[in-house]
Amino acid sequence: MKFSSKRQFDLLNKIGFVRTSGSCEEKRAAEILLEEIENIGLKGELEPFEVDHYEIKKAKFEVLEPYYKEYTVSGYGMSGSTPSEGMVCEFEYVENAHKQNLINSKDKIVFINSGFNVKAYENLIEAGVKGFISFSGTVIDDESKTDLEDRKLNEKHLKHGKLPGLTIRAKDAMEMLKNTPSKVRITLEQTEGKIDSHNVIATVKGKKYENEEIHFVAHYDSVPFSNGVYDNGAGSVIIMELLRYYQENTPERTLKFIWFGSEERGLLGSKYYTDTHEEELKKVVLAVNVDMAGPILGYNRAFVTADNSLCNMIEYMSKEIGFPISVTQSVYSSDSTPYADKGVPAVSFARFGANGGAPGHNRYDLIEHLSAENIKELTEFIHLFSERTVNSCVFPVPREIPQNMKEEVDKYLMKEEKDKKNSK
After folding, report:
1. Which of 227, 232, 389, 414 shows a CA-CA span of 20 to 30 A to 321?
2. 387: CB partners within 8 A, 6+ apart
């Protein structure tokens, strides 16, 4: 079978719409993938799992003193609600929310820099602040061409407690701070609950080593405002093409192909799968993840969360066939990591956009920035790699995670911090 860039681009166009975690659009994309699996001649499965769901009813931010102005904001999902009349407090800018920034922040509404991490959020809770505001974008954004981000608190934040939060544009934040606000009011009303997201699963049984499995995985959801073709429709169509190949060419080992939902909300689909299929994971000898591919302006990467010999193998293949790819033994922030956390060796393949070449996580993740040929070339390289593992006489990758990678996985999943808290 020849790999078809046209077929891949056609499927990419079909799923190239905003499909956020738990939404009707995410379910529609899952059903499109399921239909494609059935067209290949296999029976697929939709595996539901619960995710947090919220609906922002009202989000409002007002500076009350020493001047009055209302600014456009969005609300943080899962951050709770204020009283219906809002919450009036003194205001303070706390930068990155180090403890030194928060000495006098008790009972205040604080403004924090964009992209604050879980440790900063924990510091806010410990300091006793009443609410927070972060900023979105840059101070030079054109409002007509950019979107105010839709953010939410995840489980790592919420284990420390709940604070109502808002997001404001960077340009508005700059103007506000220049005018040194002292008292503000935030109003946030939202409903919170649970909703189903879905993993899409298909299996090709091996003809010789049926009880050894290799998983090919990619996430198919997108962030708000984004059509998600680069991140990660492209990875989704790559593993679909590989599924088509192995349906026609029966592999030696059993292969499972999984399209994970809700990756953009914290790897929720892959975490659910690896948590609920732990017994089955004992048969899995390798997870191959594809996350982001196709940019015209870009470069190829492989992230190996496994024995360093796998890095050497991929580098050798790269040089053997003349395919440029940078290989690193490291943890990648994608669906390969929950596998590594369960002791399954994992590798993530990607083609990243060069700086300025392929925007992601915004409205400019568009198919015109991608090349069908680049997607096909990465597919062919992953296929070559797969042939040398899927059909090997003796599986070449040790089924273990080296200590340095265990430590990186634990750090990424914030396990060290969790262990320290449990020991207190």
Report:
1. 232
2. none
